[in-house]
Design brief:
Structural class: mainly alpha
Radius of gyration: 26 Å
Strand order of the largest sheet: 1-2-3
Number of strands: 3
Shape: elongated
Low-confidence stretches: none
Mean pLDDT: 92
Helix content: 55-70%
CATH architecture of the largest domain: Orthogonal Bundle
CATH topology of the largest domain: Arc Repressor Mutant, subunit A
Length: about 210
């Protein structure tokens, strides 16, 4: 591997780029310690030493700091470590260590996220958000199904409660809900990701209750 660049990074650190496209960050003192120079080769033994002695340990420490502040999905953690310029090998090692220590668990994250957000957002919106966070489709489907089953067992429907709450805010007087008002309401609720048929049924129930 050839060092194609050594450039200032942040707070006394240098960004080391290699000809194969990878890069990593070291402190100035570490660049001197390993005698790294632009245009020169870095052999596999030296790279392995840097990786194990410095980068993997630092990536694991950074991972614990990130997860201590906010729970994250595996994709979010990988993206953040990549932004911090850790090489793929260090990221893989840090992620695996976090999983073994149960600091990182996409299944647990997904279940908790659904519970927390279901009081404010539609399940469709929650599903889309979790997909963007990198949650596996199969895992997500299973978590949503378990959430809905738990609600059914407890005689609850948090999404229905949320829809009715939003209807009440938009239309405080059920008797004043004419056709035009109802269509505007349904458009508003559909825009938030709620299933149109369910919204129409609940809007009719709300209107009838005030008649």
């Amino acid at each position: 591997m050839i060092i194609t660049g050594i450039s200032p990074w942040k707070k006394g650190r240098q960004l080391i780029t290699l000809d194969q496209g990878s890069a990593f960050v070291l402190y100035d003192s570490e660049v001197r310690k390993y005698a790294l120079k632009e245009g020169e080769e870095i052999d596999s033994v030296k790279y392995a030493d840097i990786l194990e002695a410095v980068l993997v340990k630092r990536a694991k420490s950074r991972t614990l700091h990130l997860l201590d502040r906010f729970d994250k999905t595996e994709k979010e953690l990988r993206d953040k470590l990549k932004e911090d310029m850790y090489p793929g090998e260090a990221i893989d090692a840090a992620v695996e260590a976090a999983k073994k220590g149960r600091f990182l668990d996409d299944r647990r994250f997904t279940a908790q996220y659904i519970r927390d957000k279901s009081a404010r957002h539609s399940l469709k919106r929650i599903e889309a958000d979790l997909r963007r966070k990198g949650i596996d489709r199969e895992l997500l489907s299973e978590a949503l199904r378990e959430f809905e089953d738990d609600q059914a067992d407890n005689g609850e429907d948090r999404e229905e409660e949320l829809i009715l709450k939003l209807i009440g805010k938009r239309c405080p007087d059920p008797a004043a809900m004419d056709y035009e008002a109802e269509q505007k309401l349904l458009y508003y609720l559909s825009g938030k990701g709620f299933e149109p048929g369910k919204c129409r049924k609940l809007a009719e129930r709300y209107r009838d209750a005030g008649s």
